[in-house]
Design a protein that fits this description.
alpha+beta, about 450 residues, eleven-stranded mixed sheet, single chain
């Protein structure tokens, strides 16, 4: 598609975005003229009550938890009934649909207007001659067998090393042995924690790394644009692939490809029963962790900027999208050279309600980027006590794997340290999401094609 085509598409989408946003505002204003502004305040109050109920449900047990659950479910139902009673049974869904359409068109317009640079992709000089793939048969509920990954990989000339389910295997050592025996590519069909261990060895020896989306969530595969519904398609990279240079995270000398979690989530993952009963374990542990019983607060320095008293802290290999509400949960790029930092500090039901209403503007949430993050136990820990001595080591979840690391725990990034071989055709490949800038959208919508442009 030519640049003129991109410009025409950007203008058209921007105009659609402006029209849809204006229509959404008009729908809301017409509703207010008929029902009055009080109904909006009632809706916000319902959202706050729902957040308070959710906090009580998570942070308490017994009667308070039951009451919180009732509020969390009942408040949205009451707001919906209020809207229906007030005659908003049509206008409220219409306004939401129009606003969602405006966001989608605005996102498309910004992408078409500014084609972002992708990580450098070059066709390898030749396909790997001695690829070695490590596969976990238990990962993702048995995807290795279900999709015939072993047979397909071996048919393409790869050597497959199968992990034994239930047995503890030093995956990193297995990868090093494969390199010593002449492997010229390392790949993994398994979870992101296993991916990170093998990726570290591949980066150390400057070998291509192949990601096969056979895990449960496959966050790395998603952000690389790989097919998560059919992991066998990832093997196409062995015969028709391109190479990407992406960043590799480092936490206390250990590689990570996605995230390092501290605080509440990391403490829950440490529990031995978590793997078999995740939801039940979390509900049992959260009251102690959130109410300040067993959970220690965390302090961090992000490029020297203090982030104090956090209950949960997440450090990611490149930041997750915050600019586009439609892309939350994805990283627009993996070669930006910066860590994403997300901290949460909720001290009670009032702050939970504030976070629900104000979102990213709430002081309960810290969102920033950094090149170096240093995490330690909060200042409240008594270093002279036995508890304080234990706090010198804190629970950490590295790509979902439970660890305990001595403080301070330092997270850094190795820019473009990892060579990733991916199929030429990736169904989930996406461009970097530009910041959602409505002023730029309005400028595009009012722009006219130049004299030399196609009409």
């Amino acid at each position: 598609m030519s640049r003129a085509d991109h410009s025409d598409r950007a203008r058209s989408l921007a105009r659609c975005a402006v029209l849809a946003a204006a229509a959404a505002v008009l729908v809301v204003l017409l509703s207010l003229l008929r029902t009055g502004p009080l109904i909006i305040l009632q809706g916000l109050a319902g959202l706050a009550v729902c957040a308070v109920g959710a906090w009580w449900f998570l942070a308490h047990r017994g009667v308070v938890r039951v009451l919180g659950g009732a509020l969390a479910v009942g408040a949205p139902a009451a707001v919906l009934a209020l809207f229906l009673y007030g005659g908003l049974w049509f206008t409220a869904p219409a306004g939401v649909a129009l606003w969602a359409g405006a966001l989608a068109c605005a996102r498309g317009a910004l992408r078409a207007d500014r084609r972002p640079e992708r990580p450098a992709a070059v066709r390898p000089g030749r396909p790997p001659r001695r690829p070695v793939l490590i596969m976990n048969p238990a990962s993702g509920g048995g995807k290795v067998a279900r999709f015939g990954l072993v047979e397909r990989a071996e048919a393409l000339g790869a050597r497959v090393l199968l992990l034994t389910p239930g047995a503890r295997t030093d995956v990193e050592e297995l990868a090093r042995k494969a390199v010593a025996e002449g492997a010229d590519l390392l790949g993994v069909a398994g979870g992101d924690g296993t991916q990170a261990l093998v990726a570290a060895v591949a980066a150390e020896h400057d070998l291509p790394f192949l990601v096969i989306s056979a895990g449960t969530r496959n966050h790395l595969a998603m952000d690389l644009g790989l097919d998560r519904s059919d992991p066998s398609r990832c093997l196409d990279a062995l015969t028709d692939g391109v190479e990407l240079r992406v960043d590799l995270g480092d936490v206390a000398g250990r590689a990570f490809v996605n995230t390092v979690s501290f605080g509440v989530y990391a403490a829950i993952v440490q529990r031995p029963e978590y793997r078999d009963a995740k939801a039940g374990t979390a509900l049992d542990a959260l009251p102690d962790l959130l109410a300040g019983g067993a959970g220690e607060r965390l302090d961090a320095l992000a490029d020297g900027l203090p982030v104090t008293g956090q209950q949960a802290l997440l450090v990611s290999n490149n930041p997750y999208s915050a600019a586009d509400p439609l892309e939350v949960g994805r990283r627009p790029r993996l070669d930006g050279g910066e860590l994403g930092v997300l901290g949460i500090r909720v001290d009670g039901a009032a702050q939970a309600a504030d976070l629900a209403v104000r979102g990213a503007l709430s002081p309960a949430l810290t969102v920033l980027t950094s090149r170096r993050v240093e995490v330690r136990a909060g200042a409240g820990a008594d270093s002279d006590s036995a508890a304080g001595t234990a706090a010198a080591s804190i629970p950490v979840a590295v790509d979902g794997e439970a660890l305990t690391l001595p403080t301070p725990v330092v997270c850094t990034l190795r820019p473009r340290a990892l060579r990733v071989l991916v199929p030429r055709n990736r169904p989930g490949a996406m461009d970097q999401v530009p910041e959602l800038n409505w002023r730029r959208i309005a400028t595009l919508a009012l722009d006219r094609p130049g004299p030399g442009a196609r009409a």
